[in-house]
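Hey L., structure's done. Input below.
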Amino acid sequence: MAQQNSDIKYPTPIAVDTKKKKYCRFKKSGIKYIDYKDPNFLLKFVNEQGKLLPRRITGTSTKYQKKVAQAVKRARHIALMPYVADLYK
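Output:
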């Protein structure tokens, strides 16, 4: 019969991923209107190449993600933000 060894030793501690819970910053702050004339704020929702970040990364709710997308599109249209950028941030 095989002996059962209860003293199992690992070479390194087991990493337990404790990721932070995502939240909608608009609901938390009580923001109702997303201003398209503020490109510095909108940069938080755009990656280095100028693409919109998805909801699963930012944690934004569906309602506000649509408003963010509309605001970014309007800012691009009046040339406050570029459509495509190489390492924009």
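Residues 62-77 form the longest helix (16 residues). The chain has a mean pLDDT of 86.

-- N.
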